[in-house]
């Protein structure tokens, strides 16, 4: 990829000739990882391009580099940035991060009040999501739209998901809540304004009442190593549970959340 300029942009109907290449690479990549994503046909990918709900990366010479698309669930209450894939020849150069950032921006433009979520087993994707403001959540905080969960049927770990009554699996759920983020931004602005006023007036502030601290989720950013160890343990427990259940019909239960 030397001396090639990569362009990350919103896909258009002119990009439909890449659809077969994209879906083939999605399937090959899922098989190589030993996990699965919802299988999509070239026609489905083409529809996303025509609707302006996809981001594509290409070189200035027209070579396909990467792709991702938007899906809305629960009547638009939830949005997922799905099907992220990068041409193997261009991996390791920050392409995935650029695509994720642009598809996130596009999702915020088209669905400003929707919660944006994702399911992934990849630590690199988790790190990118964290930088964008996503936080790890339990599956109960995701959409209950049955059409979304049907997409997991093509995953090799679907039996784990069903055995856990759709409460857990090898994938980690991450969520961006725009309402929560807006509230945090407002609280931060108020705090900064108060601090500036205090500094300007050189006042010493004393407590005049009870302070209520809302319980917040533990921030994921900066804890990648710790989370990686937890993820390996989670994978070990779930796979062991499936193996023992298939071999002996064991009814042991494991609770990870």
Supply database-style keywords.
257 residues, alpha+beta, 7-stranded mixed β-sheet, 17% strand, globular
Could you characterize the architecture of this molecule?
With 257 residues, the protein is an alpha+beta fold. It has 8 helices and 7 strands. Strand 2 (54-59) and strand 3 (64-73) form a beta hairpin. Helix 1 packs across helix 2 and helix 3 (95-110) packs across helix 4 (123-132).
Q: If strands are numbered along the chain, what order do they take across the biggest sheet?
A: 1-2-3-4-5-7-6
Structure annotation, total helices: 8
The N- and C-terminal alpha carbons lie at a distance of 43 Å
Give the number of DSSP strands: 7
Classify the helix fraction into a percent range.
40-55%
- Taken from the alpha-carbon principal axes, the silhouette is globular
**Percentage of residues in DSSP E strands:** 15-25%
In short:
The protein is of the alpha+beta class. The protein is built from eight helices and seven strands; from the N terminus they run E-H-H-E-E-E-H-E-H-E-H-H-E-H-H. Helices cover 43% and strands 17% of the residues.
């Amino acid at each position: 990829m030397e001396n090639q300029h990569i362009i990350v942009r919103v896909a258009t109907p002119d990009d439909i000739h890449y659809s077969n290449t994209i879906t083939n690479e999605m399937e090959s990549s899922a098989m190589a990882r030993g996990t699965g994503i919802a299988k999509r046909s070239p026609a489905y990918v083409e529809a996303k391009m025509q609707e302006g709900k996809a981001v594509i990366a290409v070189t200035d010479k027209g070579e396909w580099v990467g792709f991702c698309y938007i899906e809305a669930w629960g009547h638009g209450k939830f949005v997922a940035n799905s099907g992220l894939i990068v041409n193997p020849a261009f991996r390791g150069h920050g392409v995935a991060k650029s695509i994720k950032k642009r598809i996130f921006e596009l999702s915020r433009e088209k669905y400003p009040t929707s919660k944006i979520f994702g399911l992934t087993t990849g630590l690199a994707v988790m790190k990118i999501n964290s930088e964008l403001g996503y936080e790890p959540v339990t599956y109960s905080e995701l959409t209950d739209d049955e059409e979304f969960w049907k997409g997991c049927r093509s995953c090799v770990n679907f039996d784990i998901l069903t055995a856990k009554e759709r409460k857990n699996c090898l994938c980690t759920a991450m969520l961006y809540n725009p309402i929560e983020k807006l509230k945090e931004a407002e609280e931060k602005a108020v705090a900064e304004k108060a601090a500036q006023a205090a500094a300007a007036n050189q006042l010493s502030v004393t407590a005049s009442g009870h302070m209520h601290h809302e319980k917040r989720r533990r921030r994921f950013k900066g804890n990648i190593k710790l989370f990686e160890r937890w993820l390996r343990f989670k994978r070990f427990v779930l796979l062991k549970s499936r193996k023992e259940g298939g071999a002996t019909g064991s009814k042991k239960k494991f609770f990870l959340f």
